[in-house]
Amino acid sequence: MRTILVLNAKGGSGKTTVATNLAGYYAREGAKVALVDFDPQASSLDWLSSRPAERPRIAAVEGFSKGIRVPRSSEVVVMDAPSRTHDDHLASLVRRAQTIVLPVVPSPIDIRAAQRFIGEIRKLRHVIKTEVKMATVANRVREGALIANELEDYLYDLKLPSGHKFPFLTMLRASTNYIRAAERGLSVFEFAPIATAADREHWSPLTRWLQSPRSIPRH
Ligand SMILES: Nc1ncnc2c1ncn2[C@@H]1O[C@H](COP(=O)(O)OP(=O)(O)OP(=O)(O)O)[C@@H](O)[C@H]1O
Ligand SMILES: [Mg+2]
Fold this sequence. Notes:
The protein has nine helices and seven strands. The protein has helices at 15-28, 43-49, 87-94, 108-123, 125-128, 143-148, 150-157, 176-184, 197-211; strands at 2-6, 33-37, 58-62, 76-80, 99-104, 133-141, 168-173. It has a seven-stranded parallel beta sheet, sandwiched between helices. Bound molecules: adenosine-5'-triphosphate (ATP) and magnesium ion. Magnesium ion binds at residues 15-16, 39, 43, 80. Adenosine-5'-triphosphate (ATP) binds next to helix 1, strand 6 and helix 8.
């Protein structure tokens, strides 16, 4: 079972957008997908309830009440975390995942907050015990910034307090396609192939990494 947690302490960074689009991606690929919503706001579950019946099914799992039941047959489990997740709650979520995807709105304030949050996750390592792989994705990137490559240079030059590079994998643009997809219970992989072509291209470094052994901890 492939387990992917979409996580960031910061509200509105794009956790639900990334989680629902990833779930849609895997479902379209033919995988048996479960989407676990750990957020009592239940935005991922709302998305699933508007998903058309003729689309590949994604199992809805409520993760914010007691007794989380992920169908045993699930091949891919995508987990949508709430904002402001820290300490024990953070450790309990991270323990469930092989891989963390951390969406960050690339403003200096949000990037600093994300760096601190990554530091928090690293500090919990002795509590979590299991190994986890992590990638950062810039989300809601203004088209202008994408074209100018300024943002890419900025992100690429960033270093974590540990001296490591900020491990961003790709940049997702700010696009009404995500809003339209959210309204319809779809992912950008599932409608308007021409209008969403650029968005799907932005996703491909992430989906490739998620399918490679590099994103799965060795046991
Ligand atoms: N790339 C994008 N382009 C356009 N709109 C986006 C994009 N990503 C997210 N949004 C919009 O921004 C808002 C916040 O995104 P989202 O709900 O995914 O964030 P979140 O991290 O799950 O928020 P919360 O912390 O409240 O759970 C939503 O209205 C969503 O549709
Ligand atoms: Mg959310």
